[in-house]
Structures are given as C-alpha cells and as structure tokens.
Amino acid sequence: MSIERTLSIVKPDAVAKNVIGEIYSRFEKAGLAIVASKMKHLTQEEAEGFYAEHKERPFFGDLVAFMTSGPVVVQVLEGEGAILKNRDLMGATNPKEADAGTIRADFAESIDANAVHGSDSAASAEREIAYFFNDNEICPRG
Ligand code: RTP
Ligand code: MG
C-alpha cells in the first residue's frame, strides 16, 4: 500500500444535520489527514460535471437536485491506501446495506441522501481532486 489522496464530499444532508465534525473525526481516527477543505453550494453545472459518469442513469436528475439542495464540504484526504480506506469508512451506497459503524449506517437517511461521497478509484480520485482544487490549495503533511 502507498500514500494516496482521495476526494471526499460531506453531502447536503450531513451538513444540514450538523455532523461535519463527526465525519471529519472518523477520517482522522482512521489515519487519514485532511489536506484540503472548502465549503460550497454546488451549481447545477458543477454537480452535473462532477457526476458526468452517471449522466445516462435514471437517478441522475435526482442526484443533481440533491447535490445542489444545500451546501457541501469538499475535502482531500491523504494517507496509506486512502481511496479504499475512505470507501470502507463510508459503507455501502444504500445505507440500509451499509455495515454497522460506517458513516452511511450512522448518518445517512436513504440512497439519495447518503451523507458522503468518496472517489472509487485512483483515476476518479485524480479527476475529482482536480475538479475542486488547484495544486496550491492542497497542503500535504510533511
Ligand atoms: P458516490 O459516488 O456519491 O460516492 O456514491 P457511490 O460511489 O457509493 O455510488 P454511485 O454508484 O457512484 O452513485 C452516485 C450516487 O447516486 C445515487 N444513486 N442512486 N437510486 C439508485 O439506484 C441510485 N444509485 C446511485 C446515490 O446517492 C449515490 O451516492
Ligand atoms: Mg461513486
């Protein structure tokens, strides 16, 4: 395993529930460092571009509507095997199927309002980090 970076989003439902800090704490306790972070309210165009891989899926309209329904917090996580580690912390897409103790099991309401996003591969992580952050906005741990 090597040091990786991954893109994570605290979605509008989790921001509205006031659990940003609890979710950040899970990342830090698992050995992932937050090396970039910003809060923003995504525009329709930003959300559509971010989830472009799902453009043809029946849930695309609902996904974009949800992701633009309130502010999100976008962060870059860095650490040993960060991409898979973050996916493990998140749990399954549908919170009803998520393992106990995962972020989605503990904070998500439904498959739409599912608390967090995480890059699913090295290629996605590279694209998604560049989608939200310039190099000079990322502060690696020395
Ligand atoms: P994410 O991209 O947000 O981290 O979620 P994921 O990898 O676990 O799931 P993905 O397949 O990439 O789907 C992106 C988001 O679309 C919504 N979705 N709805 N109704 C459905 O069948 C369905 N499938 C996916 C979810 O909100 C999911 O997080
Ligand atoms: Mg995904």
TrEMBL record:
* Broadest EC class assigned to this enzyme: transferase
Checking InterPro entries in the record gives:
NDK-like_dom, NDK-like_dom_sf, Nucleoside_diP_kinase
Q: Does the keyword Kinase apply?
A: yes
**Localization annotation:** Cytoplasm
Q: Which reaction does it catalyse?
A: a ribonucleoside 5'-diphosphate + ATP = a ribonucleoside 5'-triphosphate + ADP; a 2'-deoxyribonucleoside 5'-diphosphate + ATP = a 2'-deoxyribonucleoside 5'-triphosphate + ADP
Q: Which SMART domains match?
A: NDK
Q: Which cofactor does it need?
A: Mg(2+)
Q: Which CDD domains match?
A: NDPk_I (cd04413)
Superkingdom? Bacteria
Q: What is its main location?
A: cytoplasm
BP GO annotations: CTP biosynthetic process; GTP biosynthetic process; UTP biosynthetic process
The record's comment on protein family reads: Belongs to the NDK family.
**Function noted in UniProt:** Major role in the synthesis of nucleoside triphosphates other than ATP. The ATP gamma phosphate is transferred to the NDP beta phosphate via a ping-pong mechanism, using a phosphorylated active-site intermediate.
The record's note on quaternary structure and interaction partners says: Homotetramer.
Question: What name does this protein carry?
Answer: Nucleoside diphosphate kinase
Originating species: Marinobacter mobilis
What gene codes for this chain? Answer: ndk
